[in-house]
Write a structure and sequence with these properties.
181 residues; alpha+beta; seven-stranded mixed beta sheet; 7 strands; 33% strand; globular
Length: 181
């Protein structure tokens, strides 16, 4: 179990990852949908994924967001994504984190390792001070990832995000550079 988690790495996503990202999204569409906004039909097309990833590349270069693919070392297969979005500089130095993983690898430590790597980037390379994440209270697997990676629970935000057509409450978690190990 932990050997699989140790064999995960992250790297910035590029438009060239569109075919692999499309395959991941299509394969997991039913699994992801209860946790995501409703997207236009064009999202699940190769062109839609190319557009998403081209925007992610521009945001990465501008330092406004950082999108990483999660890959298995053994075969370089794209198995998920972890994002640092909504980067705010100035006095806050904050980003929001979001992530998803292929359902077939859920519960095997892969996302925990990917989140740790993204936190290392956030604090050691991007110069952020704080990373926060919002999770629906029923998403126990995601909450476990945040707890295992050192996030602390800050509270509940009512009707925080529109997910699958419904305004959902979210638990807010955060970690600062001082808490990161």
């Amino acid at each position: 179990m932990s050997s699989l988690a140790q064999s995960v790495y992250i790297r910035p996503l590029t438009a060239e990852d569109a075919p692999a990202m499309l395959a991941l999204r299509v394969r997991n569409q039913a699994f992801f949908q209860p946790f995501e906004p409703i997207r236009p039909a064009s999202f699940l097309t190769l062109e839609g994924q190319r557009e998403q990833l081209a925007a992610a590349e521009r945001d990465f270069a501008a330092g406004t967001a950082y999108a990483f693919g999660v890959f298995l070392r053994e075969n370089d297969e794209l198995i998920g994504r972890v994002n640092l979005s909504n980067v705010v500089r100035g006095a806050w130095q904050n980003a929001t984190m979001g992530y998803y993983l292929d359902q077939s690898l859920s519960g095997r430590g892969c996302m925990t390792q990917a989140v740790r790597q993204a936190l290392r980037f956030a604090f050691a390379e991007a110069g952020l001070h704080r990373v926060q994440a919002a999770v629906m209270p029923r998403n126990a697997a995601s909450i476990r990832v945040l707890e295992k990676t050192g996030f602390r629970r800050e509270g509940l935000s009512l009707r925080y995000l529109q997910i699958n057509g419904v305004w959902e409450d979210h638990l807010i978690f955060a970690i600062t550079r001082e808490e990161w190990t």
